[in-house]
Protein: D-tyrosyl-tRNA(Tyr) deacylase
Amino acid sequence: MKPLKIGVIYSVNDIAASGIVNQLLQELVCKEIYSNSGFVKKAFSCKFDFHEVQLLGYDSEVVFLEPSQLEFISNVDFIVIPSRHESSSRIKSFTVHAPGNPWRRSDFGGKPMQLSMSNPVLMWYMLWELNRLRQSYPTLTEFLVSYEVTHHGPTIPTKPVTFIEIGGSEREWSIAEAHKVVAKAIKNAITYLSRVQGSESCTVSVGFGGNHYASLFTKRAFEKNECYGHIVANYIIKELALEDLKIVTEMAIRLTPGVARIVIEKMRSELRNNITLIAKSLELEIVTL
Structure:
């Protein structure tokens, strides 16, 4: 088992995130510590098994954080961000995704045309654990479990970053059982990841196309053991000039460590061919759907 150093960051003003963190504090052995950062409102140093967890609560929304506000970043192996998920549809959900802006917009934090490094194997374990753990609670059986596509900030290309979210309305964000499921999924996924360092547990993949909730990629994750890093949605790809599509494709691949496969959902042949050309040049397996 490889000891890991993990940064968990959240907004103290986020109902879902605060509930998840309160549950994590019960799951881990933690002590409150002083932070001299003006950005951090709460700070804890935690341990479980051989792992160290730095848990930091910010007063601002985490999607708008800049790398300069994350002073601890050089000391951790990766970052996990528990959060609420907001959408107009208010779908009850547990979701995981990598952050980034794979187009020339940054409506919700981060930089345009920049992605964070993804953490595909960790996200895959989180997905499985969310799906398993929710089944123990009748109040959560209707919750969708899925990837989301790459979107919003912060954009941190130097360390893997993963969002794990509770979706719906304020009612869902406040459900104690949902907080417990996400906290346990985080802890269990870290444990699994530390045990399989260097071994093949899933096929690391990058997805192109599909809808925001990455329904087909999620299905393949469960059925074909594909673990996705970055997923670039169809609604984004349609907005990209071909040169920008080339940049985004190369960036999504580069910032998905260990990638072996590219999976492309149905799209215009011109767009698909451009993605395929880059994947072939990198000697990656290509699956078109």
